[in-house]
Amino acid sequence: MTVAAALLAFSVAAGLLTITPGLDTALVLRTAAAEGPKRAALAGLGIVTGCLAWGAAVALGLGALLAASTLAFTILKWIGAAYLVWLGLNLILKPRQRFDLDAATAPAGDGLAWMRRGLLTNLLNPKVGVFYVSFLPQFLPHGVPAAPFIFLLAALHAVMGLAWFATLIAATRPIAGALKQAAVVRWLDRLTGGVFLAFGLRLALERR
Fold first, then answer.
1. Is the entire prediction scored with pTM above 0.85?
2. Which residues contact 78 (CB under 8 A, 6 or more apart)?
């Protein structure tokens, strides 16, 4: 895989992942509706900062590991592939029937409280790190240094997140209304599940 092909494939997969509703989307939407766009933007900035912190940790750890050991690469590849296939099958076979905006409560305090809430939402969620470990390495082209390229992918994901949060804030009511429709949530879950399943199978068959 060339660098250009890897970036294109990652952009498609990460873009779909970004717009699939989850706790981050709920936090930004609810904060925008209840507290205003400024505080929602701070919450989104905190979320993205948390993603970058996880991305840096994964990039540094994986970069050293993948450079040092072919066995470690093989083990990580199979664990990552199994995790992505499991996620994909669950989203396809058991899509959510609703998306609960009330699941994300807004914190009280000054403006930075919203940024801290977004930051801690990610930093205290080990699933973000596990997902990055599983997802990012499969877009690493052969012969490219692992650590800087994996962090570049995490940074691209962060930029997509900022763009999506800005869209959410600008169009809070219509987007929130659409995400409350069961058919929309099921469609997004199944589509994302199909992408995860495809990339998990591809990762399992990939040769270093």
1. no
2. 204
